[in-house]
Amino acid sequence: MKKATQLTREGRLLEATRILRRALEVPAEAPAQAPTEGARGTRQRGEKITDVAFRELPAQTHERPRSLVPYLDRAGAPQGNFRPATFEAHRFASNRRTYAYRLYLPPRTDDRLLPVIVMLHGCTQDAADFATGTAMNELAAQRGCIVVYPEQLARSNRMRCWNWFEPSHQQLGRGEPAMIAGLAADVVQRCQGDPRRVYVAGLSAGGAMAALVAQLYPDTFAAVGVHSGLPAGAARDVPSAHAAMRRPARTAATGATSAAVVPTIVFHGGSDRTVHPDNGRRLIAEALARASSSGIPLLPREQTVTVAGRTVRRTAYHDPLGVPRIEHWDLPGGSHAWSGGRAAGTFTDPSGPSASAAMIDFFLAQQLPPDAPPPT
């Protein structure tokens, strides 16, 4: 039972459920059918992209585990102020549309305010699949973070891509960015989140939307993480989106950009054939330019990191206090996949350094100033 309790605190509810069922002689459900060949790990396919889909495979179906509370009570788990981790499905209404999202709450023993991380999936993925592939919940359990996974509507994009390339979703107070910022503010208010420590990250189309949301709402998000994505304002329609994905413009992105200095961490594979790696370099260049224009001196520190035989380049730009404000992970040979993710999720590269761990480390070093307005 101690093992089940520990797994629950770490947010690994499915594993804890199996242990408890064995111990309490609860009949197990029939095992899920094994996925077909190619349903796990890194994906690369060569067909033409439609709807600005990033060639990601359909998400797996995940059943939310039954509540562990009755079993833990019987097993003698800690009582009192202890609240076990949960990962549950919810809905959020915005702009006359209702979005599904998953919410991870870490185990708690007190009422302190917790950091909030908003995770934006890529095309054809869903919240459960993205949570599985990134393993963000397990890390959030260790670091005491709330994680929110909003889902794109099929009616808005049939491939479930976030519409980062449409002008109607590139403006303050409108469209998908307004929904994402509003959802973050709602979770902060309802779940004892820390309004000064709210972050947004995403993969591919989700990464492009994360970059956009962070620029539109710099008073809500203290930092942004972009994996295999594009800069804010990189496109204004489908043709320009395809062009930007193939090769970004030499000049800075225009349109949905601002002078806001938002701490930024970028991961991008050097062999990404879906979103050209120059987009990652453009994200870093624009972040550095905004910092320079604001008079913020940054000192670069470059290092090589070897993980599972792969050598990657990490460049961190520190402020005078030694805090990293911009971070670039260049992954030579890396594909269009979440680095260090789990093979159980779609569109992951388990052999790379953990993007999730690096992003959490980077995020928790950032917070909004005390006089920042509350999230909107």
Architecture blueprint of SSEs:
Elements lengths: L1 H8 L3 H12 L44 H7 L10 E9 L2 E9 L8 E7 L6 H8 L1 H8 L2 E5 L24 H16 L2 E11 L1 H12 L6 E5 L10 H9 L17 E6 L8 H16 L5 E9 L2 E9 L5 E8 L6 E2 L8 E2 L5 H9 L13
Parallel strand pairs: 3-4, 3-5, 5-6, 6-7, 7-10, 11-12
Antiparallel strand pairs: 1-2, 2-4, 8-9, 9-10
Helix pairs in contact: 1-2, 6-7
Unreliable stretches covering 5 or more consecutive residues: 23-78
Which CATH class of the largest domain?
Answer: Alpha Beta
> How is the quaternary structure best described?
single chain
Question: Fraction of residues in helices?
Answer: 25-40%
Could you name the CATH homologous superfamily of the largest domain?
A: Alpha/Beta hydrolase fold, catalytic domain
The third-level CATH topology of the largest domain is Rossmann fold
Helix and strand run: HHHEEEHHEHEHEHEHEEEEEH
CATH architecture tag of the largest domain: 3-Layer(aba) Sandwich
Largest sheet: 10 strands, mixed
Q: Helical stretch count?
A: 10
Strand content: 15-25%
Shape: globular
GO molecular function: hydrolase activity
Pfam family, one: Esterase_PHB
Protein name: PHB depolymerase family esterase
InterPro entries: AB_hydrolase_fold, Esterase_phb, Plant_Biomass_Hydrol_Est
